[in-house]
Fold:
Amino acid sequence: MTQHRRVTRIAGLLALPVTAALVLAGCSGSGSGDAAQEDTNSFSLTYATSNNIESPFEVLAKEYEKANPDVKITLNPQPNDTYGDTLRTQLQAGNASDVIETEAGSGQTRSVIPLAKANFLEPLDDTAKNMIPAGSEGLVTVDGKVYGQPLGISYAGIVYNQTAAEAAGITSFAKDEKTLLQQCQTASSAGKTLFVLAGSTVPNAGITASIVAATRVYAETPDWNQQRLDGKVTFADSQGWKDTLDTVKKLYDSGCFQAGAEGAGFDAITNGMSSGSTVSFFGPLGSASELQKAAPDQKFVAEAFPPATSSDKAFGVASPTYSLGINAASSNKVAAKKFLDWIAEPDQAGLFAEASGGLPISGLSTLDLSTTIYADVADQLNKGDFTPLANSNWPNASVYDSLATGVQGLLTGQSDVDTVLKSLDTAWDQ
Structure:
């Protein structure tokens, strides 16, 4: 299959839902690794999940088993909101899976860089290296060695239920903050909320602030992270980060989130979006495909969070986030490596993107997205008007945790913007 045919096929399938229901499996450890690796026909795979829709990682496993009938993959899904800590605990205890879902960069407990530096991951070869998009090498590489194999490009923005919006009298998503706040009132008058937030979870609270920061921080200062690494700026002195948190608080105070958002879990998103009681939420746009399956009578599309004014530049969040690594203590490294090699083959290179509703790992600037869920942000993606996820190269996971807990504090009234920003600087410098 040629690259052109793969890209065309992927573009056509980006709007398709993932099928079937997720089958949960018990945790199965890999055992202790040793120097002699047998060529076994089995290995285990762990990944994060936050709903009962089939995970794209399960899709990969099923397709691999179909292509290799003698192979048995034990699936070990873990709750998304505790996945990073659970993974760390399993790795330290020596009972983690052979193949593990990781995240590119360094800003989370599941991120490639800190896991590699802790000697939890096995170095990968040129097959994985060739999957890394240009400019993203530092997100999966330590001392010249690759430890994570990227699976696709993930766009994080607004998952928008167009059917629910139109039922509430909203014809198109806002392009500036003033209009956005007006739409919050419009949705409320129709008995809906414009956004649903899983405020009690670190992933959703953190990504909400990160998506807002794309327009308030990185659109004007794309290299802000590097400036912070160089000690030229701080969170506390950054007007962009102040505006980011002020915007989150303003959304809450204006009734843009559902009642009890600060204590809600991921089920609030799934239930609210599939029932049409809420119009949108902050998150990875691949979720739209999953929701489309759960609610086929609704239409879900991708939108970018609006800048402060219509004259400001709209900016999104897109980067190679999902990746796979091999447990350094695995006793099934040969089988695990064959799995990663298979994923990298031309016929499978876009499989994860198809299954997750994400974007292919290459060719983004030339991809025709006009008939997909990404149609409204196609120009932004094609032109490169986006930034990697804010925490992708933050120095440690504590910074992102501080951002998420800071958002929670703003919603409950237990913290304020200045205090949150100072906590981010403290976490950064620890």
